[in-house]
Design brief:
mainly beta; Immunoglobulin-like; four-stranded antiparallel sheet; about 50% strand; globular
Amino acid sequence: MFTKSNLTGIQNGQATPAEGGILNFTWMDNSTQANASATDVFCVVLYHEDGEEFFSYETESVRTAETAEVTLPGYMAGETVEAYAYFRNEGKTKACNSLYLGSQVII
C-alpha cells in the first residue's frame, strides 16, 4: 500500500499493457460517492523489482475520465512491474487507499 486516507477509492480499477511501453488504466466513475470529487486526479505507482526502481505518475486524468495512460521508458520492454493506483484530491491534501492492479509485463 502506497497511500492510505479517507478519500473514496478506485472502483473496478484495471491495468492493461499495450505496445510501446504503455499501460492503460480504466475504472468506473464513482465521483458521486461520499468524499469523492469529479476533479480527483488519477495517480500510478509502478515497482520494478528486478531493477529495484519505482515509477510514479500523476496523470492528467480525473475520476470522471474513467481512463488514463502512462508510458514507461523504452528499456522496460519485456520487464514486469507491480502496478498500484490511487486518486488524490485537487488540493493535494487527501488520497484514497492505493489499489494493487497486479503484475504487468511491459510490451
